[in-house]
Amino acid sequence: MNKIKKYLILPIGITLILLSICMGRYSISLYDLYSLNDKATAVFFNLRLPRIIAALLVGGALSTAGASYQGMFRNPLVSPDILGASAGASFGVAVGILLSLNVQTIQFFAFIFGLIAVISSWRISRRIPHHDPSLVLVLSGMLIQGIFTSGVSLVKYICDPYDKLPAITFWLMGGLSSITLKDLKVMIVPIILGLIPLLLIRWKLNILSFPEEEAKTLGVNTDRIRIIVIICSTLLSASIVSYCGVIGWVGLVIPHLTRSLYGPNYKVLLPSSFLIGSLYMLLVDDLARCMFSVEVPLGILTSLIGIPFFAYLLINVKKGWL
């Protein structure tokens, strides 16, 4: 059954990519593209190709980060949003826009503040005695998220209302409409740097589900693995936030969906989360572009889809899954 599910991803992915090429405000056919029609070629290389690649990277990166956080913390309720990584990165980007910094510096700010948020959530949860550590971690993340969200509001309050405020507000909604091939060349670097280590150590995430002493007897340095997961997952989240704004619920919902399809083994779960997250984001972005005459901000649409879907997952949860 898993083989059928595995091979279904390929035709579904190809179909979605072909539909994404053709659909949009300026519709083109595959024949026009094949015959090198000037209009079709311009639309493809300037609009469709950057957006398709961006959607695949964004969905895959957020899903991989979410699955990695869940494995490291042994908590199925955490994600970049819940742990405060997205809120911390948002604060870093807002400060960068306020100070008119260049893109690379804004990315650095997003990463540093996202890292501070995740580590703070983790440290606070470890200091609070409670019979349910999963709940404490979620509550700690919500606390840190609230602090950084307030920080973003403060930045919006003090910034220029005619220039910086609209830029920050529009960016917070999340979207891929402004992504170009030039942006992708810069954005893909931190995504690759975050993805490769996580994929290389994905089998060790299974060992983190064991008790600490048992994991160490297997020769795994759990502290080092946790540091790698936190840094790489936060780098993925921050790089997405710095270019595309806040796109929520992907890192929470997609790992759950993937786990229900392929099981909890992280050797399979992590790459599968990347693939399913990529296709999910491509589908949602197509809806954002084509549902109405005006494009819907991607962050709004992922929330509208993700929240009820996650509620459905919670209601129909399987034993040993959540």
UniProtKB/TrEMBL annotation:
Cellular compartments per GO CC: plasma membrane
Protein's GO biological process: siderophore-iron import into cell
InterPro entries: ABC_BtuC-like, ABC_transptr_permease_BtuC
Keyword Transport in record: yes
Keyword annotations of the record: Cell membrane, Membrane, Transmembrane, Transmembrane helix, Transport
Segments traversing the membrane: 7-28, 48-69, 81-100, 106-124, 136-158, 188-205, 225-254, 266-284, 296-315
GO molecular function, one term: transmembrane transporter activity
Gene3D superfamilies assigned: ABC transporter involved in vitamin B12 uptake, BtuC
Subcellular location: Cell membrane
Topology of this chain in the membrane: Multi-pass membrane protein
SUPFAM superfamilies tied to this protein: ABC transporter involved in vitamin B12 uptake, BtuC
Iron-sulfur as UniProt keyword: no
PANTHER family named among the record's database cross-references: FERRIC ENTEROBACTIN TRANSPORT SYSTEM PERMEASE PROTEIN, MOLYBDATE IMPORT SYSTEM PERMEASE PROTEIN MOLB
Family: Belongs to the binding-protein-dependent transport system permease family. FecCD subfamily.
Name under which the protein is recorded: Iron chelate uptake ABC transporter, FeCT family, permease protein
Source organism (scientific name): Clostridium botulinum (strain Langeland / NCTC 10281 / Type F)
